[in-house]
User: What shape does this take?
Amino acid sequence: MSTGSRNTWEAWARSVPPLACVSTREPCPDPMATATRLARAGLAGQYVVYEADGGVWHFAAGSDVSVTADTGGITARAAGRTWTSRTDGRPLAAFADALSALRDEDDEGSRGEENAGGRHFYGWAAFELAHLLHADPASAGDRPLLHAMVPSVEVTLGADSTVVRAVDEAWARKVADLLAEPAAGQSSTRDEPVREGTEGIIAAGSAAYGRAVARTVGDIRAGLLEKAVVSRKVPLPAERHPDFPATYLAGRRANTPARSYLLDLGGYRAAGFSPETVLEVGDDGRVSTQPLAGTRALGADPAENERRRAELLSDPKEIHEHAVSVRLAWDEMAAVCSPGSVVVEEYMAVRPRGSVQHLASRVTGRLRPDTGPWDAFASLFPAITATGVSKRAALQTLARHEDGPRGLYGGAVFRGSTGGALDAALVLRTLIGTGDEAWLRAGAGVTAQSSPEREIEETCEKLRSVAPYLRFSAD
Assistant: This one.
């Protein structure tokens, strides 16, 4: 056991094996299903499926190499050893320092990494990290706030090829055998559909939520803040056991997310269909964020969808909610980007996202030479559209009016590289589980013009992106 220093993370990084075995195969006809099947195979103690931009799916698995940080400390594991350090209330900085040691190893040229972007890592950030970054540190709690895995095997499923990277031949063979299975020989999922009515599931807790909305409107009218995204938790029956891979596959086929993910990682299980990214950082330092705010239902009737779209584009409450989100996104980008580089590339488009349609904008910029991807993450996290304006006041309001900590909901699932790239999906429209508990959660942006009835309706509209596709194990 070690204590914190630069040498600590250098020793940890030297213990992380490179993905030395690389092979390229023909593309899979259904990369989504293939990635889900790899997840179900139980190759390792932790796994992630991450759908990136452009219809590319990544599968990563491992259990030996990880980094976990909370308010007080950070723990890194590799090669059967453990390294620890204090975080002194700055877990994100400690987390970034540990991962940067992997980059330093790459830069030395001793790793032989085959991809110019460096080694990849996958992880999550809990919503409560926001309290350390922007509000009251005492509200962050003592649970893990950040977790990342450096995989032993990574499979990239693209339109042109399937690329397998593994630490050794044994791992490569395991994945190759699974990929070689004919479709008829693949193990079937046990995907018993949800029997309870979907509307009954999503209505749980709506009355208490309406009261929380009313209290929040009171805070806004009293001048404490402009907007807060108040959410409600929908627990699933304790006697039922969600099948996360089957839920992911059914839900992803019915949704139109910006990103999607399926994971069993660092104590959380999740199957989600994220409507937006918290941030996207390229190896070249280009950074963007994608605030979505303003919502109407999206159904099977094109004429009704168009009517709701027109209503969305003309509703003063929705336009105000969206505009203040874009304004704050601009300010947060400007804090880490080169002067003059921040622009709004898209403003108030309407994007379909499963059972709803949103007002959407995109703000982009170029990172300053003295900033990096985690500086951008610290500025932009959590997404404005999951907190409110101002963030500090909104976080304080949510701590008063929501039912307990959010955990993964409203946080981020991310894929990054030692080359400087970071892609972080906002955790919304997600089935979440930990231990024997599983739940859904949804929120709505509350402003001075909000009514409890409409915000309850909006949470139901969003829950319909997930609830109809819940699948449970047969046993």
The radius of gyration is 22 Å. Residues 77 and 163 are 26 Å apart (CA to CA). The first helix runs from residue 6 to 14. The chain is about 30% helix and 30% strand.
